[in-house]
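Suppose you are handed only these lines of text.
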Amino acid sequence: MLANDGHQVTVIERDPAPPPLPGEAWDHWECRGVSQFRMIHVLLAASTEVAQRQIPGFVEALTAAGGLDLNPLSGLPDAITGGARPGDERLRMVTARRPVFESVMAALADAADGVTVLRGVAVGGLLTDPAVAQPTHVVGVVTDGGQEFRADVVVHCGGRRSAMPDPIAAAGGQRPAEQIEDSGFVYYARHFRSADGSIPMAFGSLLQHYPTISTLTLPADNGTWGVGIVTAGRDAPLRGLTDTDRWTAVVKAHPFVAHWVDAEPLTDVKVMAGSEDRRRSFIAGGKPVVTGLLPLADAWACTNPSLGRGVSIGLLHASALRSTLHGETFDDHYGLALRWHHATERDVEPYYDDTLAFDRHRLAEVHAAIDGRDYQPNDPVWTFTRNLAASTAKDPDLFRAQIHVGMLLDRLPTVMQDTELVARAAQLADHSPIPGPERAELLALAARS
Ligand SMILES: Cc1cc2nc3c(=O)[nH]c(=O)nc-3n(C[C@H](O)[C@H](O)[C@H](O)COP(=O)(O)OP(=O)(O)OC[C@H]3O[C@@H](n4cnc5c(N)ncnc54)[C@H](O)[C@@H]3O)c2cc1C
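From them, the structure of the protein bound to flavin-adenine dinucleotide can be written out as follows.
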């Protein structure tokens, strides 16, 4: 994106392996720098929309690599969708397994004019300008091997586990404040492939909430898909889901998703625990703690991934970075740091806040269900979230609102400005539980030998 705007970009990537052909990425590409590399992923419609505007060739290349190109409205009866409407094309999503879409993206970057990708090179520290006292001004990076790279600006995009506050402190700067909480969820996931390239039919949403677990069924490329069970970390009896037979028995006990595991498994159960919600603030008391260094995507903030938003938020953030740096002359770094902070606050932070709010409610709801309590917080946004999910099949406007929010094309607080819609969701909501095992049966399945 930045190179398309005329910037000369050097990407410094610790993982050594270049992207293979997309068809070989799943089996052969090792990217240890991304611990969730082979966990189930989906690219929401927001990712497709940003890519279509900002990354020429990505959607076409991903489709050519077998990426699944779908619109969740297509094939559904008019009784549910209300028929085709202007704007429905925004719901197009082109998605794939993570190694596949990343190989396509990385190959585009490798081939782009104005981009130099250095692989197998780790950033170990920051170069700063000794002539600037406060705030610390970054003028480049130094690699673990001691090589120096100077730049007009350093984009810090080292992901969820990046430890950038340490290098800033080591360079004499003030550490960015970090707001961290364990999201409290654990993921147990597998990938599958059909014999004929087809994808199972989805009954309802790709993310289904049961009292104490959620299920994820994520269609992907070349007749593959991911299936995940999300539990609360403190739900110790469900840790038995690491066992493939128990995991399969639990999925099979949920009629709406059982058929997603009747296929060739590509993996056993992959587990991801301890995923934090973490946000870094590079502004303190209205002033930047560092200049010349702009945090991007997960390096800025990351959340529990069950809503499948991380890549889309990252791409929206990258799009905001492109706009912020458009025509930038780099002679006012203090102002640039503030402009970047405000662009982040305006364009992506609301999605982060929404996701965090959802996570907190959902975790509290699961904990309440484990304890046999009801969860009825006095929060109109949560009430609407629940009513919307329970009314979508009954009203085309509510259906679209739900999909737009799920695809990160809209925000719940924006949708809620339509008070008549909120009232209609409350009126139509049917909160009968989705078919699935009672808690005692669930525990028995997760413990059986
Ligand atoms: C279990 C799980 C499931 C998820 N599912 C989804 C999903 O379905 N949909 C979705 O949109 N998002 C999902 N996410 C989130 C998504 O994976 C992240 O939001 C996304 O990868 C963030 O991209 P990024 O570029 O910021 O960081 P990353 O993808 O983590 O990339 C960071 C890169 O920086 C490199 N690096 C780090 N440190 C250094 C260094 N010192 N020097 C050089 N290179 C370095 C790493 O090697 C890596 O390549 C999921 C996350 C998890 C944990």
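What can we learn from it? Residues 2 and 441 are 53 Å apart (CA to CA). Residues 12-15, 31, 33-34, 36, 39, 41-42, 122-123, 157-160, 162, 187, 272, 275, 297-299, 302, 305, 308-312, 314 surround flavin-adenine dinucleotide (CB under 6 Å).
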